[in-house]
């Protein structure tokens, strides 16, 4: 590897091997963290959907359909049977797409705000 003066500096193979080993360990740790974050994101999304399905608005519509106060299981069934789950999935997909686009094109966010 040449230095600033053009002289070649020899790097011991042992040093390179240890460096590669450390890089591998860091990559494994990164992958583990990514899996944990994705798991937490999935849990949060599930809780958000359940709260929407058991929420006041959905429970009101289910109660109107059933002509009595809807229980949790009836509200969940109404939510799934009447497109709530599909609508939730579509809204989440659109939000994730917008977030990804804004991360990849931050200059466009500034342009829209102006």
Describe the structure.
The chain has 114 residues and is mostly helical. The chain is 80% helix and 0% strand. The protein has one domain (13-113). The chain has helices spanning 13-53, 56-66, 72-81, 84-104, 106-113.
Question: How do you describe this structure in short?
Answer:
With 114 residues, the chain is mostly helical.
Q: Whole-Å distance between the termini?
A: 49 Å
Overall shape: it is elongated
DSSP, total strands: 0
Main sheet summary: none
Given the helix and strand composition, which structural class is it? Answer: mainly alpha
Rg from Cα? 26 Å
Strand content: under 5%
Average pLDDT: 86
Unreliable residue runs: none
Give the SSE string: HHHHH
Topology:
Blueprint: H1 13-53, H2 56-66, H3 72-81, H4 84-104, H5 106-113
Features:
114 residues; elongated
């Amino acid at each position: 590897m040449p230095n600033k003066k053009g002289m070649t500096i020899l790097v011991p193979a042992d040093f390179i091997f240890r460096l590669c080993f450390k890089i591998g360990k860091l990559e494994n740790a990164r992958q583990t963290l990514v899996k944990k974050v994705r798991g937490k994101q999935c849990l949060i999304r599930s809780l958000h959907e359940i709260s929407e399905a058991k929420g006041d608005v959905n429970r009101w519509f289910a109660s109107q359909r059933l002509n009595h106060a809807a229980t949790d299981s009836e509200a969940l069934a109404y939510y799934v049977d009447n497109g709530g789950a599909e609508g939730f999935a579509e809204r989440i997909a659109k939000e994730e797409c917008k977030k990804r686009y804004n991360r990849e094109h931050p200059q466009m966010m500034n342009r829209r705000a102006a």
